[in-house]
Amino acid sequence: MNAPWKPGASGQRDPFHAFVCDDHSFDLLRVVAAEMGWAPEKVNKGGMRNAVQSLSITASPQILFIDMSESGDPLNDINSLAEVCEPGTVVIAAGQVNDVRLYRDLLASGIQDYLLKPFGADQLRDALAQAQAVFFAPRDAGPERPHMTTAVIGTRGGVGASSLATSLAWLLSDKRQRPTALLDLDVHFGTNALAMDLEPGRGLTDAIENPSRIDGLFIERAMVRASDTLAILSAEAPISQPLLTDGGAFYQLLEEFRAAFECSVIDLPRAMLIQHPHLMSDVNVTVVVTELTLAAARDSIRILSWLKTNAPQSRVLVVANRVHPGAPEISRKDFEQSIERKVDVLIPFDLKVASQAAKLGKTLAETAKGSKVGAACNTLLDAVLGAAEEAEADEGRATSSKKGDSLLGKISDLKSMIPSRRKGKASA
């Protein structure tokens, strides 16, 4: 069965496994398997349930024959099989239901062929030969696109960086149909999986504790699927259990993402810039999420300065999030003057949309369709894709950077922009 983040290599798989319900099919499959040079003992008694139990603890074969005669809900059982089947496995199903709608639904779910029982030896040989040809046929990967890695960094806690990271990943995977990985690096308090009503699993903590296990197969099994084109790797590590790492596991994960996905979105806590600066070495686009406040302006200046020095290859976008319709603490014009650049995207505050997203367990972008917030999220998507194209066009060119004015000078200028706040303090 074909998952969208299928690694390029198929690994060392058995060529064939079969799970059948009746003696006639069992005997016939053993004979035909031997003719094709496959081990007859790979033909097993038992149908779908036995197959799911077996494949949950062993590697999937190149070709899987599954008897669905005892299945009460074939489509639901196929979905259960897909959960334990490694990507790339070619599946042939057999059953006693002669229904063209079922046949079409099974093919749409990823099944290669469906044989009506009882089937003959020639029919079986043809189906297996075709499945073998499909497995070894060159994969049509479509137009080649360079992998895009986007880091989303909040200048302050609570500015909504995680909300925008999940929204961006959802838009890339759903609206643009790009296989996308979402990595939540807030190991103890991450909310990416929670925002999509998913259990985070142990994938990220396992990766940190055992970096040597990280490979294509680990990625397939450890990531939680949000949809056919979106997978999440996150954690809810116990707060009494610090996870010590030199960051090597994170770097290896990003390397595997490049092989298995078209896009990666990293929800990157700002403290990671201090602890693991190497994470930014291959980031194409950095989204700096801020609010229009004095504290956020100060930290925006510091983070933008750090990015200019330590990640010069990355295109930086500044997003002002949760902007209230009334007068913000600092006006957009003064904020832009203080950070010496434009705010690329402004996302308005909408309590109703945010509350609805939380209740439904959906991303902000998905819930906000048709609203101003939804339009702003789409603007963010277009800006990220445009910045990635510019970064790709500029790749290989020498970049030069000049030191700006001192941070303390910029921060001093900021304080003069909010006289009402200072006046209030004086009168108090």
Automatic annotation (TrEMBL):
Residues recorded as bearing 4-aspartylphosphate in the entry: D67
Region (Disordered): 392-428
GO biological process, one term: phosphorelay signal transduction system
Residues covered by the Response regulatory domain: 17-132
Cellular-component GO terms for this entry: cytoplasmic side of plasma membrane; cytosol
Molecular function via GO: ATP binding; ATP hydrolysis activity
Listed name of the protein: Pilus assembly protein CpaE
Organism listed in the record: Sphingobium fuliginis ATCC 27551
Organism lineage: Bacteria, Pseudomonadati, Pseudomonadota, Alphaproteobacteria, Sphingomonadales
